[in-house]
Amino acid sequence: MRLLIVGAGYVGITIGVVLSETHHVTLLDVDKSRVDMINQGICPIHEEGLPDLLKSAVSNEKMRAILPNNSIGQQDVILICVGTPSNTDGSVNLSYIMNSIDLIFQKINELLSDYMIIGIKSTVPPGTTRTLILNRISELGINPGSIGVIFNPEFLREGRALYDAQKPDRIVIGAADKKAADIVQKMYETSLTHQTKFVKMSIESAELCKYVSNSFLATKISFANEMANIVENVSNADIEEIMLGVGLDSRIAPSFLASGAGYGGSCFPKDIDGLIHIAENDYKIEVPILRAIKSVNSFRPDKLVNMLLKANQNISGKKIAVLGLAYKPGTDDTRESPSLKVIKLLLDLNAEVWVHDPLALKMKLNSEFSSMIKISDNLEACLKDACACILVTAWNIYEQTGLDTLTKFMKDKIFIDGRRIFSRSEIPDNLIYYTIGRKWQ
Ligand code: UDX
Ligand code: UDX
Q1: Which ligand does the CA of 214 lie closest to?
Q2: 3-state DSSP helix/strand/coil percent for the chain, to nearest 5?
Q3: Distance between CA atoms of 429 and 440, rounded to whole angstroms?
Q4: 118-138 mean pLDDT
Q5: How far is residue 414's CA from residue 390's CA, in Å, rounded to a whole number?
Q6: Measured between alpha carbons, how far is 123 from 207 in angstroms, rounded to an integer?
Q7: Above pLDDT 70, what percent of the chain?
Q8: Nearest to 209 by CA among 162, 171, 235
Q9: Is residue 307 a contact partner of residue 300, using CB atoms and an 8 Å limit?
């Protein structure tokens, strides 16, 4: 099949690479540098395993990237994968989606053969796909039998994007008609080597399915964090032991029960805000659970800084090391990273903040305080003479380095482990070590 993917971000590139196994993929993006990189076989995002596959897809002419003003040619399936960020009031900003749909309909005569599918993969509020695409088709007087319309959410995780795209637990297809849903199923089946469950539903159910999945995962995390707050008051209790006992109940499942610095990234915070806004503003209903998930999460960075202040009241003018800037290990993405809030709180307390991240040099930190901190990929330089350290992202390198070495050149031995990566037996005697979900020493 000939596939056009609009938006060469995490989702667009990853899905494009996977589908280029058996299809011809064109990635369309407004960012010229991104388009140039892809056409040179260079992957513009950090994702394990992706660079090699992208390089060979481009060199085998199974994948190419273009700008909006380039000609495209006839397509069988178009998937829109541009971002849907939050507006300041929490509502979903659909402007990139609308630009993409405008572009497709401007070029419709060039793109359309006998039958073509237009679908959205980006997370959008229920009703968006029908309003923006199906209604447009009828307004323009296009034969509705010539275009199938789908909403096909993507559940991949950054850092594991290739694995998730190649071996998805399920593929959800929301479609207005059976023909479109069957073609999209076939499109995936021919590229995936792994047997996957296909779940077909209405377009609106599929749109909500993405919000509900992300909300449930965020619920598990905030729930685990709230339980950790309780556990910290009980001598000899440990949240990790407790969640192991809890998660092995097959009705609960063990994943996404890790307490820590809270969730960040480009999806959970924006999707929780989006669903709250949809419920409260569009449907006028209260969503106390979603509000609680958000509230519990928003206090996680404060908690880490409060732990530090319990160990040392006065950090003004002192060097504090922050380990990890990415919102989770395995990615160079800092969007909504809990680390950013930790850094801001430390700067408000006049601390001298040094930040380490193994992918530091690749990071784009568009933050108001970029110039006020020192970011480095040199772990030793970051920790040397520090008066305390807060670990926010659970990069493997921290666990591999070990507490002894990490704290060796610190001035004051205070270590706040915001991701619980060390066990009790690894804590050196001379270290003040506070962590999540275990009574502080
Ligand atoms: C995706 C989804 O689309 C989002 O709705 C979902 O919630 C998370 O995953 P992501 O792949 O992370 O977003 O987006 P991002 O990495 O920000 O990339 C978006 C790409 O679209 C960028 O390369 C950007 O240049 C491009 N873009 C944006 C366009 O090509 N056209 C536009 O009008 C806007
Ligand atoms: C998430 C969803 O998992 C994915 O299905 C969807 O398509 C996009 O949003 P992503 O944001 O890439 O994926 O990463 P994820 O692994 O879900 O982690 C999100 C955040 O939750 C990270 O900050 C992570 O550190 C945090 N987290 C995750 C926890 O704090 N505890 C956990 O147990 C799991």
Answers
A1: 2
A2: 45, 15, 40
A3: 14
A4: 95
A5: 9
A6: 7
A7: 99
A8: 171
A9: no
DSSP structural state of residue 424: G
Q: Nearest 5°: phi and psi at 205?
A: -65, -40
Ligand 1 mean position, distance from CA 394 (Å) = 26
> Which ligand 2 atom lies nearest to the CA of residue 154?
7
Tell me the residue type at 412. Answer: D
Note the pLDDT of residue 360: 78
Burial 130-160 (b: 16+ CB within 10 A, else e): bebbbebbeeeeeeeeebbbbbbbbbbbbbb
CA distance 421 to 62: 42
217 lines ligand 2 (CB under 6 A): yes
> Which residue has a Cα nearest atom 26 of ligand 1?
7
- Our answer to whether residue 267 is catalytic in this structure is yes
Binding site membership of 223 for ligand 2 (Cβ less than 6 Å): no
pTM recorded for the entire structure: 0.95
Q: Does the beta carbon of 257 lie inside 6 Å of ligand 2?
A: yes
CA of 264 to the centre of ligand 2 (A): 7
Which amino acid appears at position 196 of this protein?
T
218 within ligand 2 shell (Cβ under 6 A)? no
Q: How far is the CA of 198 from the centre of ligand 2 (A)?
A: 23
For residue 366, give Cα distances in angstroms to 16, 336, 338, 370. Answer: 27, 11, 15, 7
Question: What's the average model confidence in pLDDT over 207-219?
Answer: 98
User: Nearest ligand, CA of residue 239?
Assistant: 2
Which one of the ligands is nearest to 156 CA? 2
Return the residue whose CA atom lies nearest to atom 3 of ligand 2: 157
